[in-house]
Each structure stands twice: as structure tokens, then as C-alpha cells.
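Two proteins, back to back. First:
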Amino acid sequence: MRLIKGKVVLPEIAQQERSALPSGRGLFGSLALSGLIAAISFGIASSATAGDHAHRTARDIVADKAVSEYLRNSCHVGISIAVVDADHTYFYNYGSTSRDKVERPTPLTIYELASVTKTFTASLAARAVVDGRMTLDGDFRSDLPGDYRNLAWNGQPITLRTLLTHYSGMPRDIPDSDALFADKESPDFNARLFALNQGFGRKQFLAALHDIHLRSAPGDKQAYSNAGYLVIGLGLEHVLGEPMDALMRQYIFQPLGMTSTGFTLKGDELARIVNGYDRYGRVTPRPPENAGAAWGLYASTADMAKYVRWQLDESNPVVRLSHQALTGSGSDGEAMAWNLGGDQRQPLIWHGGGSLGMSSQVVLYPKQHEGYVLLANDACEGTEGALKNLAETMHAAEVKSDP
């Protein structure tokens, strides 16, 4: 490992980072700023941009400039970035793990992945399809642990395809959060959402699932649904015979060497997680336990770099399937959780997330074998999109610098 000021560079030496999922069985699961955070952001971002620029790449320089601009918004606190290319992994860290102290994050710092979790769930579903344990267009109710005849519209059932692409007709959340999201900017939104889910675990979800009614025919309308991904998790658990956390470990975390990723924090991980902040600058609680297969994972950029490298290997049948368009097309569509589009005439695959106090983004350029993971400890307005913009800016600098 070598250290360039503000950036850690790891040569590609770990074979496990390229490992495919094994076959077999196996889910539910800086500048003039104001206030303390401005001072923190300025001090740390400045130290990151200092150094011998003669030995730094165009991407490094653009990253420092773009993140400094990002930190002009005093709602932002800290950000960790991993960049993966064919030969190396690069880490960039700015800002602070907390508003209360100047502590720059590291590649081992842990964040909430929020809805990026859905890509992990989708990868397990792809594994099940490749192994012949599930189908994309069969009646998904047959994969569930019980009789859920209510999960159909005039006899048309939910399918894995419609669940993965948010076309299932399922509500956004179970328990129903529509009234809360109608007033998402309310200062007490997080407290009310957390209270709604308090004590609502797997048993309660299974019972409530019997009582819900689809809001549209599967395949007709797209409506974002965390509940749909929890249903996928239930199906994977039932078909593959293990709980969510065990399946994630067996098929993804352990093969890829992701040692600090999971649905719960333990040991020294509790000391390595950042504080999350809402749009009002207040510390937020951790996700409720029932976030599960929809938005419940924690990880570091060191671990996520390994995940990104795996996702760039489209020779792997699981990865290849998970990136294929299920709706729309490869230039404007949805795959298995992933969004499909383009950037500078190159295919682009991405998925973002936002929790009560953190934001995330994974951006892949498969044809150029380049990927980005960006994790931030705030849930401010526009953070998720700003992270994607940062990845695209850094990628453009790399493309421009290539001979």
C-alpha cells in the first residue's frame, strides 16, 4: 500500500476481490463556510488537497476540486470514495465522521448503505435464477412461506421481474408510510418513521403481508417499493433455506472478503461507524431492524471496492444477468435493482440510496472496467444526486487524461 496525501492507493493483489459467487444453495434479511461543520470540512479538505501535485493524476485534482465545492454546502459532513479500475483501487476521504470533532474518515470507516442494499438482494436473486431455483416471470407467491393469494391483481400475480423493477403494485412500505412521505420535509419525519417501525419485525411483516392489496396490476405502473424487496428477501429465504444474513455471508461477503459488511454492527465496528445527520443537522438513529433486504446493510469503502470490482466482471453469469435490462433498454431502463443509462456515449449502471442520516451511490462503467462507490454521512436534499455527479466528474477527468 502507498499513500498519496489525501488518497490511499492499493495495487490489485487480492484474488478474492475477483471471486465469483459459488454455485449452490443459499436471504431476508475548502473555503469560506459558516459554523463548526464548515471549519471541519475546510480543515480536512484542505489537508487532502495539499501535496505535490506533480505526482498526482488528473482525477485526483478534479476530485479535490469537486469535493471542495461539494463541501461548500454546510449541510454535508463527510464523504468517502473508492475508485476501482482494472489494476488498482483508490480511496479518497474528506470532511469528518462527526460534526463534533475533526476526524477524517478512512477506507475502514463504516456507513449505512441505504438502498444500495437492494443491489445485494438482487444479486442473490440473480444467483437463484442462474441456479434454477427461481424464475423472473413465474408466480412469485409460490416462493413465499405461506399462502399469499392477495398478492395478485385480477389473477395476475407478482413476479420477480416486477418486484425487482418496482412494477409489482406493492406499497412503498409495510407498515404503510405514505402519510409520512407526503410530508417528508417535516422536522419530525425521522422520529415518526422510526416510531412507525419500532417493534415491527419479521413476524409482524409476514402477518401484515396477508392483509395488503396491490395498488395496480403487476407490470402496469412503476412505484418505488421497499416492501417489494423485503418480499424478495422472504422468497430467497424460503427457497434457499437460510436467513438473510447467513445467505449474504455465504454468497457475497465471504467470497469477496468483505469483513465489515452486514445487517448489524459488532465489536470494533461500533467505533468505526460515522454519525449520520438529517437535513437539519441533527444526529439520526440507525435504520430500524426491519430495513433488511431493502435498505439495511452497513459497509466500508474498503469492502465496497471489492463489491464494485465483482460487479465489473460481466463474465460472471450472476453479474451479467443482474445487469440485463428487465424494463426499457440498456441505454434507458432498469435491470435487477440497477438503473441503466449512459454517460459520454458509454454504458452506465448505477444505484443510489438515502437513509435517515446517510446517502450512498454506486456507479459502474462496465465497458471501461471502472467503478465508483461514494458514501456520505448526511441525508440532505440532493446529496444522493450530488454523489452521482461527483463520480461522473471524476470519470470524465480520467477519460480526458487518457492518451
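And the second protein:
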Amino acid sequence: MATYTDSFNTMNAIKTMNNLPSPSLDDPEYIRQRDLLDSALTPEVVEEMRLMIHGVVNRVLDEINQKYVAPGKPFDLIEAFAAPVPTQIAYKVVGIPEEDVGQLLLQDEQSLEAYVDKMVDERITEPDSCNRGDLISRLAREQYRKGLMSRGDIVELALLVLGAGHAALVNSIGLGVLTLFQHPEQWAKVRRNPLAWAPSVVNECLRYNGLCSSATSSPDVTPSPQIWNGSWTHGRRPSDPQKFDIHRSGYAPPERQSEHLSRLELEIALGTLFARFPGLRFDSSAIRDVNTPLVLPPGTAGVMKLPVQVDTDAEMHRILITCD
């Protein structure tokens, strides 16, 4: 039986998502939409998605284990993990049935818009469908029926989640893993207790890589990132901001409520990935076979390809280190 990742074409899917409408961040209409999205994706609502996110991450890792890890094969972490996980979560958050996801990923953005448009109509016109917990149902129930949001608003917000949110998470996962590979001492510490370190790793990776990372094409070379200071309280700059340090403290909470979802996804994705595959390592032997650069072009923040392999004996090694 074909798996989810078997039917997933990473670059085509990312292209489709990135081609969806992306308004200016200071556009008043966009700000209004984000405010409405915040009202739907409260921390309490996001917390209810925790089990769903764990399920998505573990299922994708099960497929990776069967297809690559068990046979001892290298693989592209972006293609196999960083892209499928946020995509599947985004579709589940919006409320698109799992059986439709594979086909939608193969279609263009116009087809996706038409699908979402029809789905919103169903949620609005069929009262029973609004009892569901997905985003479109919540917006139809809590916003549209109270006259706070139009039908078109719901369509645009759903596409916003499927587009901009998806691309940002793909890039954040790839950059997070690459950054840890570039700092082996801290990577070794994270490997010993990945679930406990996950929140700190996410906070520091978001700060360090920011919005315009200039990460290099090899984990053996230290990058020189443009530091993003928005994650610090009272405008206080961190000491030695050019240094990547998972021991930092003083991070401010997310500025928008909807950001809780992306942070939760990152914590679960990275923490579970490292917990299940502590032997994850950069596959430097694959560089000569890659015809495209690892990082995306200037002006974007993300990793195009990240060849990795898993040393299957690392689990016992981690246990021995922890017990010392």
C-alpha cells in the first residue's frame, strides 16, 4: 500500500503552497485576518491538537524507519520529514479529509482554492458539520454565524494556513536540524534528552536563524545569521547574539496567539525526531551527488535538501552516556 510520503512530491507541494495568495504583513486587511485567526487558534484550542500532531509526526517517522532507517539507507530529511509533517498537519487543522490530501498535493493552487471554497460552503450550509473541531468548522460556527466573518474571509484564512504557515514550518524544521548539525557539542547534549531540550531548541533556532538566515551549505561551516531580536522581552539584546546557545533564557512569549500552533509543531517535530533517531547525522558523502545547493536562494530562509543517515546503534550509546 502506498504511504503518505510515497505520494508526496516535496518541491511541487512547496511551490503550490508558496504560490497561494500572500498579502503584505502590514496590510490592514491581512492584520484583520490574523486577528480573526488568533481568535480561533487560542492556546487552549491549540493544546487540543497536541495528540493529532504527535500522531502525524510518528506516522511519518514510522514510514522513514521502514523505508530508510531499517535498511540503512540515507535520505533527504526535507523530502521525507520536514515537508510532509507540516503539510499533513495544516490539512488536518483546516479540516481536509486525509484521503483527499494526496490528490490535492498533485494539483495546482486554483484546484486547492476551489476545493476549500466548496468545503466552506458545506460547513456553512450543513449545521451538523459545524460540530467538528477543525478550523473551518470553528470559523463557521463562532465567526460567520455571529456576523463577525464573511464566507470569503473563511476561505482566505484557510488558504493562509495552508500556504504561509506550511512553508514557514518546512523551513524552520530544516534550518533547526541543520543548525544543530553545525554545533556538534550542543547537538550531542540535545541527543541525550531531546524531549526536554525541545522548547529551548525551538526558541534558540527561531532567534538565531530569524527570518533571513544565511546558513551555509555544509554543517561543517559555522553560519553567520542575521539576528532577529523580536523574540526578546523589552527590546533587550541577548549577550553574544552571534552565538548559537540552547542554554539561553529570557525569551518572550509569542506575539500572536496563532503562533502557539507553529511552536508546538516545531517542538513535537524536532523533539520526536531526535528521540526516535538519536543517531541522525549529516550525510556528507551525498554532497557530491546533489546538483542543487542545500539552502534556498538569497532572500528566503530555508533548506532545500538535507541529506542524512541514521546510525542505528546510537540508541544504546545515548543510554550509556546518560547513565554516566
